[in-house]
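ok here's Amino acid permease:
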Amino acid sequence: MTTDGSLKKGLRARHMTMIALGGSIGTGLFLASGTAISTAGPGGALIAYAAVGIMVYFLMTSLGELATFMPDSGSFNTYAARFVDPALGFAMGWNFWYNWAVTIAAELAAATVLIKYWFPDSSSMLWSLLFLVLIFALNVLSVKGYGESEYWFAIIKVATVIIFLTVGVLMIFGILGGEAVGFSNFTVGDAPIHGGFFAVLGVFMAAGFSFQGTELIGVAAGESENPRENVPRAIRQVFWRILIFYILAITVISLIIPYTHPNLLKGDLENIGVSPFTLVFEKAGLAIAASVMNAVILTSVLSAGNSGMYASSRVLYALARDGKAPRFLGRLNKKGIPMNALLVTTAVGMLAFLASLFGDGIVYTWLLNASGMCGFITWLGIAISHYRFRRAYVAQGRDLKDLPYRARWFPFGPIFAFVLCIVVIIGQNYQAFTGDQIDWSGALVAYLSVPLFLILWLGYKWIKKTKVVPLQECDFTTSAE
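and the structure:
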């Protein structure tokens, strides 16, 4: 092992595009979209997903400006430490690591639920171990191994969505499945918007979780062959593809399946047979739809676990390199893999083994709730870091024309993203406070991530006596690698 080497630049343009794309198309689209339509109606679901999509666009352009100027696997914590406050960088790094390390465990637990669709009496521990070994192997071979596996995982998901959209359009116009559906389901009941403002707000929060993963491109930039070209290209392509896929898919589902359909609410891991995608395929006469969608969703959760392993190990390595984690985690092997950081992260992933002791669905839900709002906190940090970066860049007399990639709509973009993230964080579980009695248990699960983040931030600030970095002193010159 060595501490002198550097991460290998093994990710190509196609890998970068698919890492961001694959990180966002998953269970949020294949499963949660049905619940969103049922809760807020077709119009409400479209409004919520479009609004979050716009916010994500601004966040992606902010991250693009930062990552092309300073490609670094520490990404968010490096930018926050340099342009805001070292304490914020410390807190953001550990928040991001915790979020994705727990995601590994959550996705492995989900994979055991999915595999039992075919093997109902098999051992949860056996499947958890098998899938954990698989994603560990993909990450330990080389960064190219991770990039290549994520590329093919994403191809499967994209192909499924394209086939779904094609079948759906043919059904809407009556070319497939008999009678033309038309637009009648957009006027069923009180559609297009059902449940009013708070129903749309609830879907808005769920949509935010669906889009999480796009920020992985910021971590991957540190190992990209040519980040100044590959990152902007990936950001431009990914945003429009994701937005089109989500908006078109929700439109197709809404036109074919009325929001009043009882099975839309049951689109969860234990009811793959009633995923909205499955409902549409079955209505088209494709009898094997449930098995096919189960297989696709299985690749989705493995893809998320694979990405979680990669991202969390890189950020842990960067924290160690910057003196914010134990030094042994900052060592690289001959292949440029942060092996110790990978092993520690894998150990957290072994929490998935609890699935065999306490029941698969319960553990999956608990682990997912444990990571809470970490993703929104990361987005909040990206918006703050970009705002400070641009102000410091100008304050030090630098020319904006020299930036490899410049985010449009500044300062509106990061401010808009900041405000929306605050709204989502505060309103995450507003229902806990609206009843006759406060639901303290629900509030704790929903908001636990916030006090944990504040303890990390303020604790480091108090111990290290850090201060907000003056704009004139922000470091644009030194290399992180």
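+1. The domain at 13-464 is CATH 1.20.1740.10 (Amino acid/polyamine transporter I).
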